[in-house]
Write a sequence for this structure.
């Protein structure tokens, strides 16, 4: 499992990025949230030889009011703002196909610029893809829908885990995230991921 200290550090880091971008682009109403293993609570400690022992954190950077922007504009609004920052410009990797990557000491964050796909579909998002000829096209993803599907697969076990965590920590259920919990499904995925890492190490 990822330690509580590391989890808090990761959350504080991506919230700081979200605040920085949001303050510069108020009209776009930028919101950052986790996706992938961070959101699902299936992140594991990397092997020391795996990507220099870094945690891999996947994030959605949604430009809520950016539906009219082109894919290139969506990608570069986020990238340009990160390049302008004295702090983040030093941590920024070259532009990736879909993401901007910020490298911290013990983890790196893949920041995925996106907009809502449409007002009718609140979960799906429009992502950007940079092609080999340096042009950009739209793509579609649904990380929030996937999280809801993942919760549904756990059914009663998920509900029980929420209630137990809320009682032990004396917190409201609405404030509990998947990464706070350890259900059998989450643990099985973590074990499979560790098996993969050892199996293909080197």
């Amino acid at each position: 499992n990822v330690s509580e200290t590391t989890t808090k550090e990761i959350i504080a880091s991506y919230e700081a990025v979200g605040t920085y971008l949001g303050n510069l682009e108020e009209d776009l109403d930028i919101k950052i949230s986790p996706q992938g293993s961070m959101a699902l609570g299936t992140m594991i400690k990397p092997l020391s030889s795996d990507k220099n022992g870094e945690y891999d954190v996947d994030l959605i950077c949604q430009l809520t009011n950016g539906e009219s922007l082109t894919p290139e504009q969506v990608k570069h609004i986020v990238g340009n703002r990160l390049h302008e920052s004295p702090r983040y410009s030093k941590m920024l990797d070259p532009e990736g196909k879909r993401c901007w990557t910020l490298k911290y000491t013990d983890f790196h964050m893949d920041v995925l610029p996106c907009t809502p796909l449409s007002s009718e579909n609140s979960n799906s998002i429009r992502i950007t893809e940079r092609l080999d000829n340096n042009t950009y096209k739209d793509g579609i993803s649904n990380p929030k829908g996937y999280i809801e599907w993942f919760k549904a697969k756990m059914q009663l076990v998920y509900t029980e885990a929420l209630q137990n965590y809320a009682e032990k920590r004396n917190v409201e259920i609405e404030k509990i995230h998947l990464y706070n919990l350890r259900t059998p499904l989450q643990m099985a995925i973590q074990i499979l991921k560790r098996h993969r890492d050892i199996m293909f190490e080197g």
Residues 146-199 form one domain. The radius of gyration is 18 Å. The mean pLDDT is 93.
